[in-house]
Structure formats: C-alpha cells, structure tokens
Amino acid sequence: MAELVREPVLMVGEGWDAYRLLDSGHGRKFEAYGPYRFIRPEPQAMWSPRLESWDAHGEFVPGSDEDGGGRWQYAKSVPDDGWELGWGAEARFTAQCTPFRHLGFFPDMAPVWEWMGAQLADATDAETMNLFGYTGVGTQALSRFGRVTHVDASKKSVAQARANATLAGLDDRPIRWLVEDAMKYTAREVRRGRRYDGIILDPPKFGRGPDGEVWRLEEGLPGLVSDCRQLLDDNSRFLFLTVYAVRMSSLALGGLLEEVFAGLPGTIEHGDLAVEEDALRQPQGERAGRLLPTAIFARWSNPR
Fold it and tell me: EC top class, in one word (predicted)?
C-alpha cells in the first residue's frame, strides 16, 4: 500500500545558464531568461527587494481583475519571435513573452524534470505521458527514456512543442503529439487497457478543451487522478502532479493520491516547488538566496 509521508518536501530550482531569479519583493520578481531580463508579478514575494534597482528589458503589468489580463511594457528591444534557450544536455526551446505573463516554459519545473529522470534511471523503453504538456520541455526530458505521449488541448502549444523538439534535434524520438482534452483522452486510454511507467500532469486552474470542454480544477482533478491511477501498475515508476495559483494545501493533493493509490506499492510525498534567488551575489561559500514558492505538488514513486 502506498504510504503518505506527512512532512512536506521542498523541491528547489537553483537556476542555470538559461534562467536565473535575480531578485524578488513587493509583489514582483526580477528574472533573467538568457540575455534578457524581465519583471513579472509575484504575489508571494511579500518581502522587500535586495537590489536597489531592476534594469529590465520588459515588465508585465497585470490587469485589474484577479483572474488574468495585463500587458507587457518594454524598456529595451526584445525579439518578437523569441530566442533559443536550453536545459541540460539536450532540451532546447524558444523563450518568448506571451500574453499570459510567462515566457513559454516554467523554469521552476527543472527539479521535477531531474526527479523524473531519477525515477526512470537507465530505462530506454519506458512509456510515459505528459498531460497538459504545454510547450514540451518536460516531454523532451522524458524522451530519452522511451516513448512519450504529449497531450495538450491547445493546438498552438502542441505546435510550439513540436518546434521545440525540432530545435533540440529530437525529431527521431518516439513522441506522440496529441491535441486532445486531457480528461477525455485519459478516460479512453483506461478503456483501451493501456499502461504507463510514468505520468506527469500540470493542470490549470481553469481551461477549455479543443471542442469547448470546460475544465475546473477542483471539480475535475479527482476523476482525472483516478483515471491516471488505472493507467499505472505495480511496475510503474511515478506520477507527478503540480498545481498553480489555487487556495489549496499540498497536503490536500497528497491526501487525494493516498486514497486513489491505496492499491499500489510505493511512497506518496507532497510539498512546494520553489526557485532560489541568484546566490552568486552572496559572499563566497554562502547560499543566502531566498526561496520563492511557485506551486504545490504531490508525487507517487515506486523505486525498482
């Protein structure tokens, strides 16, 4: 029986050449995406900035409503069609200022990509699925272990994910690119009797499928997780669930997995994703960068 670890886990991304969290505070964050620097809203940065000023290429100014909106304001030139960045030895992708305030990938997911790789170890024939796969950096990270099914309801996002894979030279990797509603597709996979070695899912708070299907996290998540469980067995390796921008504890996600995964072996953990501020400015030998929380998660693992 899968055992729930009650104490929360902190998964921290420390930044890399293509991305760094330079500073944060007063409800904003200051980040470097390769050679370009940006300011974005961050309600959880309730402290004061450490730098006296932020020299940014652009800033996203949010709209007046809580649920979204806003626009980019630029102080310096930024390529309209984006610029190439990378993660690890082979993941390549295009960063770009989007109307949704992010830049085409989620850098706080880097420790998740590393964790998934550790669960799959030296596998070369693993079957994995990336639900709500967006622009596909996680799919690239999984593809060196075997076949990946990449699912997203946005035709534009899937097209960008395929372009990113081409940019990384991964056109020969066994990746299935699907423009599908995640709930409908997962339910069909259950009916087909399919199984996977690992599943990652990053559902939005609210969304619409390609045929107008409406997704609301609190309503749809239990059923989706239940279907994902039916695609896993005693030989599967992991499931990783991340949730952003909700008034919910990671312990709630852990409790959901504890119930649904009761019939499987392994361990269930929950906690926060966070990004560490750039520590290079600190005295040598010290890591004094503050940790900025970005999301909550729950994960099931079954080491072999």
Answer: transferase
